[in-house]
Specification:
Structural class: alpha+beta
Radius of gyration: 26 Å
Number of helices: 17
Number of strands: 26
Low-confidence stretches: 262-269
Mean pLDDT: 93
Strand order of the largest sheet: 3-10-11-19-16-15-14-12-13
Oligomer: single chain
Helix content: 25-40%
Strand content: 25-35%
Length: about 525
Amino acid sequence: MAEKSIISIEEMSTFCKRKGFVYSNSEIYGGMSGFFDYGPLGVEVKNNIKQDWWKTFVKSRDDVVGIDGTIISHQKVWQASGHVSCFADLMVECTKCRARKRADQLIEDELSIAAEGLSKEDINKLIEQNNLKCPFCKGSLSKPKEFNLMFKTFVGPVESEEAVAYLRPETAQQMFTNFKIIAETSRVQLPFGIAQIGRAFRNEISPRDFLFRCREFEQMELEYFTHPDEKKCSLLAKDDLNYEFQILTAETQEKKSSHEKNQKKDLHEKVHIQKLKIKDILKMQLMEEWHAYWLKQQYQWFVDLGIKKENLRLREHRKDELAHYSSACFDIEYNFPFGWKEIHGMANRGSFDLEQHQKHSKKSFELFDEATKKKVLPKIIEPSQGVDRAFLAFMFDAYHHEPDNKERDWIVLKLHKKLAPTQIAVLPLVNKLEDKAKEVYNMLKNEFVCFYDRSGAIGRRYARADEIGIPLCLTIDFETIEKDNCVTIRDRDTTKQVRVKITDLKEKLREKFCG
């Protein structure tokens, strides 16, 4: 009997809607593609993800500070960063029905060829060689053209060029533009990081795969600044060198691409994924020490919150994918039902961003180095991920369904205790025990996230709690009142039950959720 069932992205979307995790935005008016609202359960999981990330990478560290920047910034910020001129995807348009589609997605859908990152020339060649037509009406397609993904708006009552502004497509730029003042007011010394969680907006040509590719989303980003001459990472411990990743190297991808160039192939077929330790990766010179340190931290964060290691891998960006400012970039990918997809990206950005803003603003971004008595412009490692993609990965990894299990044929959402929307369900066995059950509920609710459920058979209530990921159910029965003043604690994952005295209940629950 399989422990875990595999469901499609459409089935996950249906489950999230049915259970109150995520809904389509403006659904009563037909919805808007690429926009989603988080329901009562979904917002709790999402907030738990953000809170744990912030606690792990900001509050628990002495070398990282946080900010909360605005969604709209001066247009010169995006001119300096290159977003105004370069932040674009390739698009094709049907000459007949005028439908527009992202070009690389068209290639992947029609030819099952991994096309992300291909040049305009390569995509046009594939379209012409394979005589690809509009997927909607079979009309002819235009040549690929660039489409800027930023949402444009105007600040103030006059719609002039001077009033042009953009909804931020990433949270990173405020950490760069505020870098100098943060360094001065926080009195931090290199190496240090700046973190931010917030909304970003990208006018995607073809939003798809539920929460995976949206037009409005949230990011958790960290910019870590190091001395430009400091190659050794002072935080990389000896034990870290033996940390092992599943990794798909650029070399492996390039060999495969060369062997199968322009041939049809299964996007999801297995490729040679190596298992390499950090010490081996450094020996192969795939990345620098600071990059390795932060990849380990972020990778382990997913594992610590319940993602199975076999469902994670690193993918090294090929040379033709790298941005001109990046010496190395690695994605942490999750094995979704629709293939291995990025849930975290980490680039070695060098000093590019600070150099750009220094050049365009004509203000110095250099810091004074006490050791050398010289001014230096720091280098940057950028751990960046989407909250929504993390949410999706955690949901898929937690989803378990064994329809052939007659004793437990319902869905069990095995979310990590830190992510569960509700910690405890309090259940009176029958309604006449409600007074005692309410007493227990009221005793716990100010310290733990509790849910009270009195409706239906006890087995049905267990099933409801399992489906929304509640780790523990507390049942008040007749023995509670007549015999031992104990409640039954049922564990979601094992279904094991233990009796605990009400006087000991808080301490027992603290061990479970705080230990």
